[in-house]
Amino acid sequence: MRRRRISDVHVVAEVPSFESVAKRHLDDVHAYLVYMTRDREIAEDLTAETFERALRQWRRFDPRRGSARTWLCQLARTIALDHFRAEQRRRRREGAWAVHQPVEVEDGLFGGLSPELERALAGLSAGEREVIALRVLLDLDIETAARILGISPTACTTRLSRALKKLEERMNADVAA
Amino acid sequence: MSQPDHEAILDQISASKLEASPELRARVRAIATSTPPEAPRRAVSWRRIALVAAPACLAVAAAVTLAAGVLDSGKQRPTQAAGRERAATLSASADQAIPAPKATRTGSADLPSTSGRAQRYEAELRLKVGDLSSATKRALRLTRDFHGYVRSVEYGSGAERGSATMVVRVPVGSVQKAIVEYSAIGQILDQHVSIEDVQPQVDRRFRQMQAQRDAIAKLQAKLESPSLTPAERRVLENRLVAARRELVALQRAQAALKRETSYATVSLDLRSTEKAIVVPDDPGRIGRALHRSGEILADEAKVLIYVLIVGSPFFVLGALAFAGARLRRRQSEARLLSTS
Fold it and tell me: How many angstroms separate the CA of residue A99 from the nearest CA in chain B?
């Protein structure tokens, strides 16, 4: 643990080492990115990229403004958005020649859920899966999740409620079929 | 198969195990144990800059104010009489009447005209008098004594208050003495003296007259030539007449200006009830420093308010642009996430 002077009034805060933070929150960041991307390989690449960037920016981390997990999730989100933008550009470039392929979701991608739930989750949009990952999987409180998403807590609650409703509908439809 | 309920879905998701692969774990461990790159320079946040800059600006403004106030406070007014003069030229709004001091009689209106130069000399005196009627008579008598004349008099007297307004013309050579004598009629409430130098105008007109005289002499010389045709002679004669007429006009204007500047105009406003002004005491160096500092602070506040008023539309526009860009970015992110 190292000590950092974080204000001029001699308040000293404990800042954990980057190594311990990486070890503790790797699974969380990885799970969040799996939910966002629906692709384990891409999620692993983005997770590694997230920790690379986090290492570069570790000096800027201020524990007073939020936990290390929140900070890492914010970084992971930025990197995932960059990835989606790049993908969108690529798809636009190749759109004239490429045939649109439905996304194949590997079994057990979301970590041992029922096949109906896996399929229903995969059918949601990245934004909907993201809010489920933050609120349900990572069990973040509403304010922290809203902060990561850059929206108000009310909007976050609404988004989660809609996502779960959609998820339930899809699962019911799947079961009925 | 039964329909899945809401709680069951949540339980299933929160109970799921989504762990990183050993390869990813090793990859991240390698990243975490590597040496972080050197920070280029300590980045200073805007918040910190503002936190330092705002008190620094205030401190500088306060220091400048205080320094200017202290420096200016050292500039003593020449004399107490001069202070009274300054005070006496302000409009009367004081609470207590003071008798006209001796210094005022020889000081406040004692602005001499420059002899040998044409100047418009105008003076205004507002006086508090005891007996309006006798004061008015005395002013008129003084005007006659100084070989001046009265241009207008307006006299009105009621049960409690009365006033007399007169405009007199006094020879410039005697005006200083006349003003001192007028001031002695009562207590000075307000006075104003203005001198306008019109000598450049006199000189310019003199040069124009000289030029006209030269032109007339040349025209006369040309007319004496025997070789002139009748038409040419007629043209020259017409020009000669016009030049003489112009010269006469210039001479008249010059004479009028000289007459005007040979007399000073003194406006006397005599009042029988109005309160006289109080000449403030010299407040001392500390008092002057504080007063001056206050004035500078007020000026700084004016500048600040001006900057705020002028800059506020730009601040609002900037804030709107910032909010718009943020909204656009969020909408773009939402679109991106809904299609991914």
Answer: 17
